[in-house]
Amino acid sequence: MFPFILFALLIADFYLIFVFAPEEAHQGLAQKIFYFHVSSAFAMYLSFITAGIAALLYLWKRKPSFDSYSYAGVWTGLLFLSMVLISGPIWAKPIWGTWWTWDPRLTTTLLLMLIFVAYILLRRFFGSDERGALLGAIVTLFGVLDIPLIFFSVKLWRGIHPSVLGGESNMPWEMKLALIFTNIVVLILAGYIFWMRARVHQLERRLTA
Amino acid sequence: MKSSFFPTFLRKELTLTLKNAESLISVIFFCLIVLLIFQFGLAPSRSPSFAHALIIITALFGSLLRLNQSFQSESEGKMLDALRLTPGAMNALFLAKVTALVAFSLTLTLLTWAMAVLFLNTSHGISLLLFMSVPALLGFLGFHCVGCLFSSLTMQHGRKDVILPVILYPLLIPVIIAMLRCVDFDAISGMPLGWNADWLKILISFDVIYGAASIMVFDKISEIK
């Protein structure tokens, strides 16, 4: 039942983005990527923070379920991080005239990808035994410590990436509505993917035990 | 933590490093080879900023080779089991290893600097060495705190030579960038002008966060065999 509700929400979201929200005067159709890009970024951060909290709980309590949540958090975060790194350059090319710049926020997002891909590789090397789970938890914890850098990188360094923190917005209400709705739907989607991945991981552990 | 553990372990680490002369010399020659390969691949330059980047990168690669072997002596026999049973011993061991590794890396940086001055004919060599010293110390401190932690966890794995760089470098890229950007250079002459306060603060922040996290986590993970 839930997947069908989610599908209906996604259809409603596409309507809001492509029909209801107006086209931006200067950026045109390319601006529509903004809704997916920003909402994917929020889902990414939330997933990694969830993974970090689960990793911390695993280090404290050593319960296998926390390891599964941490693993699922990283996996879901990587999925949405890929969306961010793909949609970003597609949007950047017509707007900034370049696929990539070594802007601080872009660079730190790329670093996060390297860190958590290393996590996935590490789990493949060590598996889901206690040492693998422990190593994974530590890598996740250190990786999550890097996340604040992303939030404050635009304030600490100068860059061409727009800031989403503070400042006045002159976005029309239709665009704001589409953005808020997209954020909610993508977060629900992320939560669903997270839950399914955690379940699969727990079942895999039971099978291999 | 008993006060005598740290000096004892530090003395042991330094003695082992000095007695294991073959691996020390091989790391130095490795650094020379890396320096030469970079020199062949990039346009030759006498600029201190060019040399600074090469020296730091080369010393980082050499430090990782040493890091891979850092828990070799403890992996034999049941030494770690005995240390786990002694309160405070594991923390002292961790701090001693980090101190010894930082000392090794700083020595390696000094030797790489000498090779750079000799082979690259770098100008303003002494100024470069003086300004490079603080970022090198702070950078290698952060590098080895995290490196020592992961080296202890991967020491018994057959593929640790592959795993350690794959895990370590992405986590430590912020430290590496800060080490490389910490020194400001004159745009025309390339002469070192001074330390960049912002990057220095970032480097210190990384050391505090990563160092504290590594020490706290090492105690927890030392219970796992």
Question: How would you explain this protein's 3D organization?
Answer:
The complex is a heterodimer of chains A (209) and B (225). With 209 residues, chain A is mainly alpha-helical. Helix content of chain A is 79%, strand content 0%. In chain A, helix 2 runs antiparallel to helix 3 and helix 4 runs antiparallel to helix 6. The longest helix of chain A is centred in the C-terminal third of the chain and has 36 residues, at 173-208. The mean pLDDT of chain A is 83. Chain B has nine helices and two strands; from the N terminus they run H-H-H-H-H-H-H-H-E-E-H. In chain B, a hairpin with a 6-residue loop joins strand 1 and strand 2. With 225 residues, chain B is mainly alpha-helical. Chain B has a two-stranded antiparallel ribbon with strand order 1-2. The interface between A and B is medium-sized, with 24 and 24 residues.
Please tell me how large the radius of gyration of chain A is. 18 Å
Largest pleated sheet of chain B = 2 strands, antiparallel
- Shape field of chain A: globular
- Count of alpha and pi helical runs of chain B: 9
Query: Could you state the order of secondary-structure elements of chain A as H and E?
Result: HHHHHHH
Q: Spans of chain B with pLDDT under 50 lasting ≥5 residues?
A: none
Structural shape of chain B: globular
How many strands in all of chain A? 0
- DSSP helix count of chain A? 7
What radius of gyration of chain B results from the CA coordinates?
18 Å
What class, by secondary structure content of chain A? mainly alpha
Mean pLDDT of chain B: 84
**Helical proportion of chain A?**
over 70%
Strand line-up across the major sheet of chain B: 1-2
